[in-house]
């Protein structure tokens, strides 16, 4: 009789051990499947890797990390934990396929400076409607009509350089891209408004990247005041346009004409923020691309000859510039176009972008925790030999074959990709056409790069320009 409970206890112990073993194995397995943070170092407490990033060329910082940890790695910069993505698939995941899990993110001081209603700070309905509107004001149909205006800005810009004095090429190109931006936004704009906008926007531009201390005398404070004045000037332009009651096809016309499905229109502040947002997105990017093109062509005389050859044929058929460029001619500059594509790859002006995870996201077994920043690294992808053979050599001919999908993103990807990309390419083609036909230039810079925040040749690529006719 005594043996029954003992046997029972043994059986019970044996079964519970088995069960415990089974459950703990299952839990272990489950634990193993829990996504982990990507590899990488978070640097020093609080400051993270910020000093490392700012003490060396940011491209070296990113590529050193990529070599050490692979295409997805974590780091900590500017007070934020970040996951950096250097693979085309991961960038596509964040910018296209799962874009709803990530939101655009900018420092508050920058949002305030541009205007919080500018489309690139938003996602969802507001962003969708505004983007459609900006896209249609910059569509191929719309920019075709800008050709004579862009051409006359290009000619007067180049004429003002042609006397052999030293020009800061980047500054010169900024003036050009600003004027083209004004043309696309307002069509014709009275001179006094143009001058007021130019003056105040340039103060805002100087303060944008300064330390955000709002104390009298600082660049930031001056920029905040200039931003207020810009709002007032834009208010006057908007009211004049409303009084005229003429429906224009430029960006301002589109913004004034906006009505959502509930019949709501845009407020004056929303319109002003978006105008300043577009000017901001259009100016330094295009100017930097043009500055790099001048440098690359200068450094590669054979390629410059090929561009000249292509452009000379068009120039001659236009009676040496007496007739203006046509849309068809701008669409048929195949070699110059490839030079632009290759310059955008080499310089990778927008080297990366920022998003923020709105929920915990799992990608390829890695966890991207809610609130972490995510940075698709366009430049690292553009300079990866797996996608671009000998990435450090400037070779426009590589674009005779289309790049692999999602490996070429000078204008970004997905719902926030650049709506101004066709205008940017058009203005570059027009400027190059007149530049190579009318001028020759000597670069005086050392070839070093500085970041402002986009990469530009040091000191804006000082250069001397001479009229070719006077040779
Ligand atoms: C070479 C010149 C340019 C380059 C390299 C460039 C590059 C880019 C990139 C990479 C983005 C996406 C940023 C992101 O995903 O976070 C972007 C967005 C944008 N760009 Fe450009 N851009 C250029 C010229 C222009 C021009 C000429 C305009 C307008 C006239 C413009 C207007 C915009 C706007 C409004 C956005 C925000 C779109 C959105 O958030 O939906 N860009 N640009």
UniProtKB/TrEMBL annotation:
Q: Name one GO molecular function term.
A: (+)-abscisic acid 8'-hydroxylase activity
Q: What residue ranges are annotated as transmembrane?
A: 6-23
Swiss-Prot/TrEMBL keywords: Heme, Iron, Membrane, Metal-binding, Monooxygenase, Oxidoreductase, Transmembrane, Transmembrane helix
Q: What is its EC number?
A: 1.14.14.137
Task: Identify the pathway.
Answer: Plant hormone degradation; abscisic acid degradation
Q: Which PANTHER family match?
A: ABSCISIC ACID 8'-HYDROXYLASE 4-LIKE, CYTOCHROME P450 26
Q: What is this protein called?
A: (+)-abscisic acid 8'-hydroxylase
Which species is the source of this protein?
Answer: Penstemon smallii
């Amino acid at each position: 009789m005594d043996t029954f409970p003992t046997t029972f206890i043994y059986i019970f112990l044996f079964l519970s051990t088995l069960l415990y073993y089974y459950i703990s194995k299952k839990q272990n397995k489950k634990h193993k499947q829990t996504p982990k943070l990507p590899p990488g170092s978070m640097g020093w407490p609080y400051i993270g890797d910020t000093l490392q990033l700012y003490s060396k060329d940011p491209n070296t910082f990113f590529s050193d990390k990529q070599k050490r940890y692979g295409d997805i790695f974590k780091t900590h910069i500017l007070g934020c934990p970040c996951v950096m993505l250097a693979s085309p698939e991961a960038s596509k995941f964040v910018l296209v396929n799962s874009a709803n899990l990530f939101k655009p993110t900018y420092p508050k001081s920058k949002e305030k400076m541009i205007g919080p209603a500018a489309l690139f700070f938003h996602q969802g309905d507001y962003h969708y409607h505004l983007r459609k509107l900006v896209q249609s004001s910059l569509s191929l149909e719309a920019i075709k009509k800008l050709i004579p205006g862009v051409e006359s800005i290009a000619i007067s810009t180049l004429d003002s350089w042609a006397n052999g004095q030293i020009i800061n090429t980047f500054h010169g190109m900024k003036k050009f891209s600003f004027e083209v931006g004004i043309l696309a936004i307002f069509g014709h704009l009275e001179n006094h408004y143009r001058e007021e906008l130019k003056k105040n926007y340039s103060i805002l531009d100087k303060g944008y990247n300064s330390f955000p201390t709002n104390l009298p005398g600082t660049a930031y404070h001056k920029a905040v005041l200039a931003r207020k004045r810009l709002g007032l000037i834009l208010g006057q332009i908007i009211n004049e346009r409303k009084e005229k009651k003429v429906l224009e096809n430029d960006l301002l016309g589109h913004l004034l004409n906006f009505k959502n499905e509930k019949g709501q229109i845009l407020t004056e502040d929303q319109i002003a923020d978006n105008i300043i947002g577009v000017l901001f997105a259009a100016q330094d990017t295009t100017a930097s691309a043009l500055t790099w093109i001048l440098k690359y062509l200068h450094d590669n005389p054979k390629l410059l000859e090929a561009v000249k050859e292509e452009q000379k044929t068009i120039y001659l058929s236009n009676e040496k510039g007496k007739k203006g460029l046509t849309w068809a001619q701008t669409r048929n500059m195949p070699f110059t176009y490839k030079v632009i594509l290759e310059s955008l790859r080499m310089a990778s002006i927008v080297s990366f972008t920022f998003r923020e995870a709105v929920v915990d996201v799992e990608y390829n077994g890695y966890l991207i925790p809610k609130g972490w920043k995510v940075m698709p690294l366009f430049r690292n992808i553009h300079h990866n030999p797996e996608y671009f053979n000998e990435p450090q050599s400037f070779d426009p001919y590589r674009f005779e074959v289309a790049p692999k999908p999602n490996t070429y993103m000078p204008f970004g990807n997905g719902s926030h990709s650049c709506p101004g990309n066709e205008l940017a390419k058009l203005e570059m083609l027009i400027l190059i056409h007149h530049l190579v036909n009318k001028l020759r230039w000597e670069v005086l810079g050392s070839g070093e790069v500085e970041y402002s925040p986009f990469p530009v040749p040091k000191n804006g690529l000082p250069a001397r320009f001479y009229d070719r006719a006077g040779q």
